[in-house]
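Late entry, evening session. Most of the bench is empty. Finally got around to the prediction I had been postponing all week. Sequence below, unchanged from the version circulated by S.P.
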Amino acid sequence: MANVQLKCPCCGGALQFDDKKQLTVCPYCDSEFTAQDLKAYTDELANAPEEDTSWDESMVQAFTGEDKKGIKIYSCDSCGGEIIVEETTSSTVCPYCGNNLLVAKELKGDLKPNYVIPFKLDKDETMASLKKFFKKKPLLPGSFKKDNVIEEIKPLYVPFWLFDADVSGQVRFKGETTRRWSDSNYDYKETKYYSIFRGGQIAFDHVPVDGSKKMEDKLMESIEPYDFDEAQEFNAAFLAGIGADRYDVSKDETFNRATIRFRDGTVQAFRGDISGYENVSVQESNLQFSNTNACYALYPVWILNTKWKEKSFRFAINGQTGKVAGNLPISGLKFFLFWMLFFAVGVGLGALLGLLIESIWIGLLIGAVVGIIMATSILLGMRKKNKNVQFQYGAANYVRPNTFNIDYRKSLFLYSKVTKTKRASSDNK
């Protein structure tokens, strides 16, 4: 019979049996398990079904000869960008590099969008959203806010692959609880480790994945969510005066990204059902997708490309909601002045503390430490607001109403570990 190699529930390392301790141990993280606890854990894993994250592609459709009569493609001879436009468009400008699009091409082999969400905000409303976005950033250099910086802004329909799925399965988490106590010589800390299982169902509708290589995925996800209730079946008339980016990421290339978003959305939902632990981390998930669907849609985005001090900046504005995303520059002078301000506040609080404890130097020392921590943490938060482009890993904004259900909850104790630290007072005995 073949040897069965067990993996550590905590770190995934290969387990070994310690005949002296009569325990199964992990040489990588020093975890120790009794045979009974380990059997309960392995029995739990053995009952999990196989994972299935395949997708149904039956809704994807190609342009027919009749569809092609209403549209044509312009190709930029500078950057290579391709824009689908209404047939009556005589000329247009590349939204990526600003050059005139002069080369007309025939539409061949393209897939036809299933849906389009029409633009809801006009240019003036979009500019107002952009200026509001700049206004809330105190670290932004003043010169960047000048009107001439944000004059050129263009609407563009960006291609997205949309995915639906009913998700069921089980997620395993690692949980920790701690207990502390002391005696005359030592401070003790006991940490208990658990495997936490949650199983259930959740469904997602129209989770988008960017279908354009020219658009940064993080930038497109940062202006989510979109309200699909306002989507309409595709018609070339929606392209009147507005170009559509030609997709260059196939549906097959986006399956992995879609699966990641579904998995993370499910894990986040299941994690919200867990309480009573000081630390909870994800160990693994085993999910099954059903009633899957993949289709193609065009979503409205206003694009601004600009340069400031020889650096390029791109901003995207959701053409349906007005949500803005883009990484902004930071004024080094403002950063320094704000840091000094918050540091001074911390020192001032320390000085007041010094008066209360009748030791101004100790108070100032405490205040300096507090000031450094406070100034650094606040400034890092302000800096993060200037850098708001980030992946929206989960799919929480696209959960189908009344579909989230937890029907399996279980927690298995794995092992405990006690550490002790000699108390400073015991050194003098």
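Two things to note before I forget:
Residues 360-386 form the longest helix (27 residues).
Residues 93 and 100 are 5 Å apart (CA to CA).
Will write this up properly tomorrow.
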